[in-house]
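Dock NAP; give full complex structure.
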Amino acid sequence: MDTVSLSGKELAAAVNADTKLRAGALGDAPARLALVVANDDPASAWYVNSLRKAAERLGIVCETVDLGADADVAAIRAELTARSADTAIDAIMVQTPLPSGVTLEQVSPAIAAAKDVDGVSPLSLGLLAAGLPGFAPATAQAVVEVLTHHEIPLSGRHVAVVGRSNVVGKPLAQLLLAQNATVTVCHSRTVDLPAVTAAADVVVAAVGRIGLVTGEHVREGAVVVDVGTNESADGGIVGDVDADSVRGKASALTPVPGGIGPVTTALLMRHVIEAAENRRSV
Ligand code: NAP
């Protein structure tokens, strides 16, 4: 079977074109994103830089607030609380990894929901679960938008999500339920993962382990989404799916890079503009 590549580049370009127009419409009061960083991780620095460039290209002002790799929970929460109250700031993101001993769950409650453009706070996650307006985590939303863009039906289909993190797996399950999919969420304690995922029409890998999902995990004709962004031995980016063994069996597969990643960034920037528009209309 030919396996179609579900690129995210075309969709990301379309989202970005719309965002740029909307950013321009804000005139001399541009949207402002505060990016809070508390690490000295090179991969994080690369990602922060790419977010800054994406924002600049679209006409969004991005302020990086570097608290240093030794920042504690109180310092990070204080910064997020201050930025939440700062009327000059429309949107807030907190970059991971956080300092050793600090979890996203400890600091994210300090982000005001109206500015929480990556949907990480408990309030944002609760709004999503309740089907109420709010920002969904961009990566989870990117999975649904890539599938929709490529006209992969979700209503009534069985989707197996591998991974149950608060940033990808759990919110993705909620978004898929909202699309009327039947959802199975798998994790490290799932017994006989290949048997569970091979029963699904769509398999989403969001694990953080190179090549965890192989041809054995996928039934003939299934659609496979690879959320993974792992660093390979040669410094490149590889996914959670062993593409060689899945190709020829799956009907479609998202590439890494060029699949979920560019759409995630584009949706984050769209959320920044939405946050700015919402604040200006109140
Ligand atoms: P995470 O917080 O580390 O969660 C990983 C999940 O995978 C956990 O739920 C874990 O189960 C599960 N898992 C680990 N080993 C497993 C196994 N052998 N079998 C089944 N499940 C297993 O990771 P994350 O933040 O969700 O990220 C997942 C991946 O997505 C990473 O590669 C990350 O880099 C990537 N990512 C990409 C983007 C993007 O823009 N494309 C954005 C965010 C994340 P337990 O809960 O039982 O431990």
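Observed: The pocket of NAP is lined by residues 139, 162-165, 167-169, 186-190, 193, 206-209, 212, 227-230, 240, 260-261, 264 (CB under 6 Å).
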